[in-house]
Design brief:
The chain is α+β, with helices and mostly antiparallel strands. The protein is built from 12 helices and 14 strands.
Length: 350
């Protein structure tokens, strides 16, 4: 990446973009120095593209940054200071722009707060940027993070943690408590962890947990997704402790409901391994070893993001319930009109 240097404006070719060429995907990654590495994919022939940026997902208000010559698919934009920066890429001379941002919101105190926008669906639409976020516990936000948090305009917070977790680490904002569990409330908490020795054993805990969440928390998940259709519910964020397992299952079911391809849903799940550091996981690692007597290998497995575990859970939705639509309108308790309203609110054609 970074084939064009910061500030450079590669000369466009003499011809403008063909109407048969479209920008179909844009990725933005924040670099250590705050600059933005932008990469795009085209459908059709090679053309020059116009790159613009701004503080909101509305590309109409973006300022032109540079025009990149045909044959190049990367550029690095200079840092623009604090806050989120959205980037739009469009064929030079005409064509629809595709907007993207770094999926991770750049908080200081927490690292796994992510935007679920910008994902392409099987119908050709995209999930809206800046309306639904997934996150780890918000109690970790620092004082310096509060300004950026308020810039997001959050209207609803859904806390998926247990009552014990909430009492130990209260959230900083009013929230809807939607406790999701992977087993019946009166079951033995330590049971699923007993006898776990290997890395694979630890990952199997997650595989069982994800299917358990789908089976035992269907109505809670359905209630949360229905809540996102309320007129004043967006932007919204849902979170658990690490933003990986309970949050991961809810995010996966939401993206499936919106028509995001399964491979992309699984990619989103695995992003936690990129954004949540081992140092952040050390307290949980020690607890698993010291309080639940897991071996270090098994504890490491529990902290992983094994793609197969989420894939098996989503396959269970297909095999046990006949797919996401029937799951949501069956055990999750949503009306067909709720599912349709969810798609209308969270999808866009631009």
């Amino acid at each position: 990446m970074g084939e064009a240097p910061i500030g450079a404006v590669p000369a466009p070719p003499p011809t403008v973009a063909s109407v048969e060429t479209a920008v179909v995907h844009v990725e933005v990654d924040t670099q250590p120095d705050g600059s933005l590495a932008v990469h795009w994919e085209l459908d059709g022939g090679e053309v020059a593209v116009d790159v613009a940026s701004g503080p909101t997902p509305d590309h109409v208000d973006h300022d032109h940054e540079t025009t990149v010559a045909a044959g190049h698919h990367d550029v690095v934009l200079a840092a623009r200071g604090a806050g989120r920066q959205f980037v739009s890429v469009a064929p030079h001379g005409g064509g629809s722009a595709v907007v993207a941002a770094d999926r991770r919101v750049p908080f200081e105190g927490i690292s796994n707060f992510r935007d679920l926008g910008g994902y392409r669906t099987s119908s050709g639409t995209r999930t809206r940027w800046g309306v639904v976020f997934r996150a780890e516990g918000l109690h970790g936000l620092s004082e310096a993070d509060l300004e950026l948090y308020h810039q997001l305009g959050m209207r609803a917070v859904y806390d998926l943690r247990s009552d014990m977790e909430r009492q130990a680490r209260p959230g900083p904002f009013p929230s809807h408590w939607v406790e999701v569990m992977g087993r019946p409330r009166d079951s033995d908490v330590t049971g699923p962890l007993a006898g776990r020795v290997t890395l694979g054993d630890g990952e199997q805990v997650l595989g069982d947990l994800y299917i358990g969440l789908i089976e035992h928390s269907a109505t809670q998940i359905g209630g949360l997704l229905t809540g996102l259709t309320d007129g004043d519910a967006l932007p919204a964020v849902f979170h658990c402790h690490a933003g990986k397992d309970r949050t991961g299952v809810v995010a996966a079911l939401l993206l499936e409901a919106l028509g995001v391809p399964r491979a992309t849903v699984l990619d989103d799940y695995e992003l936690t391994s990129r954004y949540r550091s081992r140092a952040q996981q050390d307290p949980t690692f020690r607890r698993l070893v010291e309080e639940y007597a897991l071996t270090p290998e098994a504890a490491a497995g529990v902290l992983n993001t094994p793609r197969w575990a989420m894939e098996n859970a989503l396959r269970a939705v297909d095999e046990r319930h006949g797919g996401i639509e029937r799951y949501l309108t069956g055990p999750a308790g949503m009306r067909p009109s709720d599912v349709e309203a969810l798609r209308e609110r969270l999808l866009t054609t631009t």
